[in-house]
Each structure stands twice: as C-alpha cells, then as structure tokens.
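TICKET: design request
STATUS: open
ATTACHED STRUCTURE:
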C-alpha cells in the first residue's frame, strides 16, 4: 500500500524550490502526493523563520495537526508529522520538546534524508547539519512540467545584516557547480520549461570553479548565465535575490549582450538613510546604491528595479524614514515588498535598546506602501498601448483566458481560442486593472 504525503510551504521561493524537490524525491521513492493533510500519512511543514508572523503560522498549524493526529490514533490510524525548513533549523529542539506528536525535524539542508528517515522506527529526532553538497547530490530530476521554473544555484549568506536570521538558518554561502546546474536546467528545458529563475539568498555572489584547457578558473553569475543561455529551448533568464555589493561588471555586460537576460532586477536596499544602513550592517551607503542603479541603467536602458524595505528598524527616526521615501522617489521602483521590522531571536538588532513603537511602524508601513504602489502604477501606465513579448504560463479564471508575464514581470491576461501555454507572443497592452494588464495578441 502506498503512503500519501502533503507538503505545506511557507515563505520564499527558495522554500518553494525545496518543497518541489522534496516532492520529487518522495515520489521517486514510492510515496504518493496527496492534496491535503486530511488524506495524508505524512504531513510535512516546510517552514519560514524570516519574521515572527511566519514562525507563528507554523505553531498554530502544528497545534491543529496535533489534535487531528490524536483523533486519528483513536480510530487506529497514524500520521507522521515532519517539520522542515528554517524554523526546523532554528528551533528544532524546542519544537520536539514542546510537541510529542512531531516525528522528525529536518533543517533546510537535510530534507533529502526524509525517505531514509521515514524507514526508521525511532522518531522525535532533529537533523540540522549543514550538508549542502549531499543535499544537492541527492536530488532527482523534476517530474513536474512547467513553463517557468525555479532553480536554486546558491544557498546561505555570509553578509550578516543585523536583522536577519538567514546566515543562521541557511548557514554559510554555498554555490552549486556549473555542470550540475546546467544539467538540471537542460532537463527542465527538455520538459518544456522556457524560463528559469536562478535562486539564492545572495544569488549575485554565486561563485564556482571550472576547468578551461586544464586550468582552474573562478566564475561568477554572469558566466553561469552565459552558459545556460546555450540551452536552445530556454528563452528567459531571471535571478534573485541580489545584494548591491555583489553586482559585478560581468553580470551587467551579460544583461547588455544577452537578450535572454530579463531587464528586471530585484535589488533590495532595505532603507534609505545611511545611519540605518550602517546599523543594519548592510555595508553600503545610499549614494553607492543610487550610483549602482545609474550605472546599470547607463548600460541597460530598459532595466527596471524592485526592492525590499524594512520600516521601524531600531532607532529609525522620522527623518531617516523620509530619506527612504526620498530614495524611492529617485529610483521609482517598478514594484517592491515592504515589511515592518520584526525582532528575531539571536540577531544583533533584537538587543538594540531603542525599538520603534508599533504605532509609528504601522504608520510608516502604510505610508511606504502607498508610495510604492503609486510608483508601480506609474511604471505600469507607461506601458499602456505598447506591444510587448509575453511568455504564457497558465490559464486565467475566464473561458479561453491565458495568463503570462512581460519581460518586466508584469502579469498579462489575453483571450485565445488556441492553447498558447509555453508560447512567447507579442501582445498589445490595452487595459490596466490594479497590477495586471489585459491585452490582445498581435498577429
Ligand atoms: N524583519 C522584517 N523584515 C525582514 N526581512 C528580513 N529579516 C527581517 C526582519 N527581521 C526582510 C528583508 C529581506 C526580506 C526577504 O525580508 O527586507 O530582504
Ligand atoms: Fe539576510 Fe542580509 Fe543575507 Fe539578505 S544579505 S539573506 S537580508 S543577511
């Protein structure tokens, strides 16, 4: 009899990638995917630790699952509960101690051990080693066919921004070998993928080594992009997330010369005040960031930018916040994410004396989101009545409706009698509703 599993994914795209790979691995080992926890023998929670809210979600889900498991026991059935991901790494021992119904804890570099672990009788165990190489070496080719795919190429972070848990939950930076990444993307392309988003907590610090004419050579992200470009079926390359200090000329040149490189860069700045940037240990100034944006635009005229922002960071005053708004006005981001600062256990920022009040943080968040939305709308409006290339990846809610993305990642809806999924087609953008376009196919 088959055992059924269901994975719930919290947080970022790196977790989405991990969940898909875990799914592939379990199916490869004879387990079957289910659509919900209720019908599963194995419940997997792939968790996120980045902000308090994300962690809290795990604990409330765990509470409900625990009761469900106990009810199942009463009717003679079992369900194993597995916690993976960043909360597993950070709080694994506490989770096990606090909840007797949790069977295994597997940190982000340990989920590949699950098929083996499930064969053990001994439960209530924590696996939290940093074993990147074994993890990536254990993965199996993806079975799911999609037009747009995520591929992790780098994991971990050596930057230690004062607010961030990533260096502790994902560990030190590790880059996968070029050949391994190439083989994975080639397989995806053979299965219909047209676009790939290369993932890493610090993707622009990707570095690896290759042998050229018997000589060892260091290579970076720009080189990797130039290599995967050779895969014919692949039409678009994206990558995320970049740190401003790691964008090198090679990468900029690749954007300039390679039409598969999409003109959209997620480049978090977090804040616009030099005092706050210094406190955050970002190791760059606002001037450096603005110069970098200018330089990239001089090289790649149609490049658009998105960013992450944190408001209410310890010691952030009204005038610091104004500097963030001023930076936003200067860059005019195409889209962005903004968050209220969340004090995370074990980070240097969490022990700062002067924390900003909830009330002030809420007001700043409201303000920054209104300003960011305004620039996003302004950016989108500049595309109305223009014709752009759209890569179609799915169906819309209405009959014969298809959904795709522009080079700048804007969603576009069109109607078509033919199935256009997987096609790169010219579309005239006619209407903008909230943050997505409605258009018509040209020819
Ligand atoms: N509080 C709020 N936002 C955070 N981020 C990371 N750590 C925190 C925190 N402690 C945000 C940053 C980062 C994004 C992924 O999450 O903006 O770029
Ligand atoms: Fe966290 Fe900073 Fe590393 Fe990004 S660069 S993962 S914000 S420590």
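STATUS: resolved
RESOLUTION: sequence designed for all positions
ATTACHED SEQUENCE:
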């Amino acid at each position: 009899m088959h055992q059924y599993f269901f994975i719930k994914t919290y947080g970022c795209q790196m977790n989405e990638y991990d969940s898909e790979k875990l799914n592939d691995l379990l199916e490869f080992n004879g387990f079957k995917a289910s659509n919900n926890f209720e019908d599963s023998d194995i419940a997997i929670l792939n968790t996120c630790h980045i902000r308090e809210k994300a962690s809290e979600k795990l604990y409330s889900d765990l509470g409900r699952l625990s009761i469900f498991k106990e009810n199942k026991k009463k009717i003679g059935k079992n369900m194993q509960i597995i916690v993976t991901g960043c909360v597993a790494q950070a709080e694994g021992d506490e989770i096990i101690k606090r909840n007797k119904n949790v069977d295994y804890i597997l940190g982000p570099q340990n989920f590949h051990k699950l098929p083996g672990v499930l064969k053990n009788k001994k439960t209530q165990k924590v696996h939290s080693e940093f074993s990147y190489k074994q993890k990536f070496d254990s993965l199996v080719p993806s079975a799911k066919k999609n037009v747009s795919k995520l591929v992790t190429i780098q994991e971990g972070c050596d930057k230690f921004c004062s607010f961030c848990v990533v260096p502790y939950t994902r560990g030190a930076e590790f880059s996968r070998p070029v050949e391994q990444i190439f083989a994975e993307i080639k397989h995806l392309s053979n299965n219909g993928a047209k676009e790939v988003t290369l993932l890493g907590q610090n993707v622009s610090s990707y570095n690896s080594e290759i042998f050229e004419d018997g000589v060892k050579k260091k290579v970076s992200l720009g080189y990797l992009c130039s290599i995967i470009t050779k895969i014919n079926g692949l039409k678009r390359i994206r990558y995320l997330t970049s740190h401003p200090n790691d964008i090198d000329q090679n990468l900029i040149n690749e954007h300039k010369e390679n039409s598969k490189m999409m003109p959209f860069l997620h480049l978090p700045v977090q804040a616009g005040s030099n005092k706050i940037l210094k406190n955050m240990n970002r190791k760059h100034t606002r001037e450096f960031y603005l110069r970098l944006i200018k330089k990239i635009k001089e090289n790649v005229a149609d490049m658009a930018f998105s960013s992450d922002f944190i408001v209410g960071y310890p010691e952030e005053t009204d005038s610091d916040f104004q500097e963030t708004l001023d930076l936003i006005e200067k860059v005019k981001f195409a889209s962005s994410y903004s968050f209220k600062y969340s004090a995370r256990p074990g980070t240097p920022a969490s022990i700062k004396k002067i924390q900003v009040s909830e009330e002030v943080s809420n007001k700043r968040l409201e303000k920054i989101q209104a300003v960011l939305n305004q620039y996003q709308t302004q950016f989108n409006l500049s595309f109305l009545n223009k014709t752009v290339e759209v890569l179609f990846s799915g169906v819309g809610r209405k009959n014969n409706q298809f959904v795709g993305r522009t080079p700048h990642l804007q969603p576009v809806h069109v109607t078509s009698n033919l199935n256009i999924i997987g096609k790169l087609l010219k579309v005239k953008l006619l209407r903008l509703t909230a943050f997505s376009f409605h258009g018509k196919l040209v020819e």
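CLOSING REMARK: The first strand starts at residue 4 and ends at 9. The chain has a mean pLDDT of 96.
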